[in-house]
Amino acid sequence: MGNRLAGILGVTLCASLVTVGICSPQQDGARRSSPDQANASKPKQRDDQEEWRQGLQAKAKQNFDAEAERERSGDRSTSNTTADFDHCFGQRLEETAINLKNFDGVIRQLQSGPPQMSGSAAETTARPAGPELAPAQHAAEFDRLENAWQRYGELACEAAFHQAAFHQFDGGTGAPSFQMQCELKLTRDHLRELDLIHGSDLHR
Q: How far apart are CA 104 and CA 3, in angstroms?
């Protein structure tokens, strides 16, 4: 009876000490090693983030190079009718718009920053011009500027359409083709602008 009571008391005492870590050397050892584990995970996190960045950069290059090659190949059509020409040119414009959309998507992801490890915070750095924007703020600013460019492109090519319709084609059917050519040129020019503006993210 005495041995049984002593065993029960021993188990109870050990259970109470586990909560403060005295009776659990494994937990205590894990607690002591956690800073080392956190430090050891940092190089892996940097490697993962660099792999993430390089993957996005490769996607951006693929879209940029594909559009540059299409531009070098020329956009002249062998269509014999205006309707066929418009259809052909419309397809080319759609492909160019997709390349721009994909290029935009890569830049937005880069602006948003790499995925953070659970429990880690994004590092911020003070700049001479003021505090650095948070990743979400960078992405929101990029979206705002892209929306403004989209609106500019629409207005500019609408003006080109009206200019062509009433002054170059005398109200004829060539104006829509002229508008699509305007959109195609502006979109490709914008791809080059984005590549220049965000080159530090796209090419480092």
A: 75
- pTM score, whole prediction: 0.69
Task: Report the alpha-carbon distance of residue 202 to residue 198 in Å, rounded.
Answer: 6
Average pLDDT, the chain: 78
Instruction: Identify which of 148, 56, 70 has the alpha carbon closest to the alpha carbon of residue 102.
Output: 56
Task: Give the lowest-confidence range in 6-15, 80-89, 144-153, 168-177.
Answer: 6-15
Alpha carbon distances (Å) from 54 to 106, 139, 203? 11, 19, 9
Looking at per-residue pLDDT, the higher value among 194 and 167 belongs to 194
Place of tokens 């419309």: 90
Half-sphere exposure of 134 (CA within 13 A, CB side): 4
Q: Which residues in 60-88 are b (16+ Cβ under 10 Å) and which e?
A: beebbebbeebeeeebeeeeeeeeebbeb
Q: How far apart are CA 196 and CA 204, in angstroms?
A: 13
Checking if the pLDDT of 119 tops 50, the result is no
